[in-house]
């Protein structure tokens, strides 16, 4: 169909101009604001990301403000969004733009790709919206629309699929107004060409949609199965002293939740009973050094916290102590007043426990 790309482009933009949501990042071409919105919205729904975007702009109105902030403050504001490497990359790139680029964002797709945490999608979005460069965006929503309308069964999470969909999107992009076209593509996939049960009978593309004609809407796009999910067993020891203090430690390394705080953790290969926990050398050492007098299980039912490639099976153990000196015994741990615990950036798994456990509500 020679007219298919033209029909698609024209009808998509016409639909968008009538049905688009009024979102704060759509009323600006400031690259800082667009960059911030795109990083927050990676792997995050608009409804969830919008409050974070607004909080970040209030706290850091300019890239200079973000660069000058502490990593702890940024992680605390980010708390609950997940994929915390996005926040660390955000901070790193802000400092790079301020220190190395004198506060000026790159103005082309290729230059934007050199920024840490900025990939093809984000670079295309910023380049098209802010600088009118015809660089097509391809995200999960765009994959879905293109695979269905153009009948493409190549798996979207393969090298071949990524190249094929990017080339098609680039062919379709409106060179006069690429920013509007890109936002229209994402909006249509997010709000109309949805994953389950889209209203194909009323769709603006049903006359040219290959998937609709072939009754393949439910099977497209194709995505290869992910790798096996890893199971991990976490035992958090929540130490409470008579002086109304507890213990937190900061995660290091390149694993999950880097630089976030958590309670002392004992990770095991299986779920533990009380009898199995108290005879472990790791627990004995912790218990002795922190003067633990009694320990009890908080949650009888395992809390299952699901991440992209791993599931955390978690128990919280409440350990009562008559006092401790973490500086002498455990210098990597931090003594925290219970009244101040909410000031620390923690994973959502820990945040949920803190909000539920009555001691932390006092």
UniProtKB/TrEMBL annotation:
It comes from the Bacteria. Its EC number is 3.2.2.31. Keywords: 4Fe-4S, DNA damage, DNA repair, Glycosidase, Hydrolase, Iron, Iron-sulfur, Metal-binding. Its cofactor is [4Fe-4S] cluster. Binds 1 [4Fe-4S] cluster. It catalyses: Hydrolyzes free adenine bases from 7,8-dihydro-8-oxoguanine:adenine mismatched double-stranded DNA, leaving an apurinic site. Residues 40-191 form the HhH-GPD domain. One of its GO terms (biological process) is mismatch repair. GO terms for molecular function: 4 iron, 4 sulfur cluster binding; 8-oxo-7,8-dihydroguanine DNA N-glycosylase activity; adenine/guanine mispair binding; metal ion binding; oxidized purine DNA binding; purine-specific mismatch base pair DNA N-glycosylase activity. InterPro entries: A/G_AdeGlyc_MutY, DNA_glycosylase, HhH-GPD_domain, HhH_base_excis_C, HhH_motif, MIG/MutY, MutY_C, NUDIX_hydrolase-like_dom_sf. The keyword 4Fe-4S applies. Adenine glycosylase active on G-A mispairs. MutY also corrects error-prone DNA synthesis past GO lesions which are due to the oxidatively damaged form of guanine: 7,8-dihydro-8-oxoguanine (8-oxo-dGTP). Belongs to the Nth/MutY family. PANTHER family: ADENINE DNA GLYCOSYLASE. This is Adenine DNA glycosylase. It comes from Ulvibacter litoralis.
């Amino acid at each position: 169909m020679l007219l298919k790309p033209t029909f698609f482009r024209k009808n998509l933009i016409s639909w968008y101009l009538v049905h688009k949501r009024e979102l704060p990042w759509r009323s600006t071409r400031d690259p800082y604001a667009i960059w911030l919105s795109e990083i927050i919205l990676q792997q995050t729904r608009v409804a969830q990301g919008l409050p974070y975007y607004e909080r970040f702009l209030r706290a850091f109105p300019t890239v200079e403000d973000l660069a000058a902030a502490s990593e702890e403050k940024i992680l605390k504001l980010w708390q609950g969004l997940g994929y915390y490497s996005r926040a660390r990359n955000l901070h790193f790139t802000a400092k790079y733009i301020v220190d190395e680029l004198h506060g000026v964002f790159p103005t082309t797709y290729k230059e934007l790709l050199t920024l840490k945490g900025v990939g093809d999608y984000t670079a295309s979005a910023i380049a098209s919206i802010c600088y009118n460069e015809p660089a097509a965006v391809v995200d999960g929503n765009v994959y879905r629309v293109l695979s269905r309308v153009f009948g493409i069964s190549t798996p979207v999470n393969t090298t071949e699929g990524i190249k094929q969909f990017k080339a098609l999107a680039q062919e379709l992009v409106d060179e006069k107004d690429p920013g509007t076209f890109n936002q229209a593509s994402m909006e249509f996939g997010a709000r109309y060409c949805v994953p389950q049960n889209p209203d194909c009978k009323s769709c603006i593309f049903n006359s040219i949609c290959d998937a609709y004609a072939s009754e393949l809407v439910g099977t497209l796009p194709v995505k290869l199965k992910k790798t096996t999910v890893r199971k991990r067993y976490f035992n958090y020891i929540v130490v409470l002293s008579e002086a109304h203090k507890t213990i937190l430690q900061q995660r290091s390394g390149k694993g999950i939740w880097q630089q976030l705080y958590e309670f002392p953790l004992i990770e095991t290969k299986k779920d533990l009973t009380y009898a199995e926990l108290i005879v472990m050398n790791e627990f004995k050492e912790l218990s002795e050094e922190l003067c633990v007098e009694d320990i009890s299980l908080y949650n009888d039912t395992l809390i299952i916290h699901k991440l992209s490639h791993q599931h955390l099976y978690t128990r919280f153990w409440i350990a009562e102590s008559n006092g401790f000196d973490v500086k002498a015994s455990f210098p990597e741990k931090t003594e925290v007043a219970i009244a101040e615990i909410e000031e620390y950036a923690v994973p959502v798994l820990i945040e949920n426990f803190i909000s539920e456990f009555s001691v932390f509500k006092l």
